[in-house]
Write a structure and sequence with these properties.
Helix content is 55%, strand content 0%. By secondary structure, the chain is an all-alpha fold. The termini are far apart.
Length: 47
């Protein structure tokens, strides 16, 4: 059974991968749009 991941480790790895992907996407989008704000109303700086 060495080919089957521990469910807790697999879940944690997915969460880390998800958080990393989101952080990378936010950094990329912030670089494309320097006027972007972190406002929950407008994420594109068009208030």
């Amino acid at each position: 059974m060495s080919g089957i991941d521990d469910p807790q480790r697999a879940t944690r790895r997915l969460l880390v991968d998800r958080n990393l992907a989101h952080a990378m996407a936010e950094a990329y989008l912030a670089g494309r749009n320097l006027t972007a704000t972190r406002s929950p109303i407008s994420r594109h700086g068009t208030e």
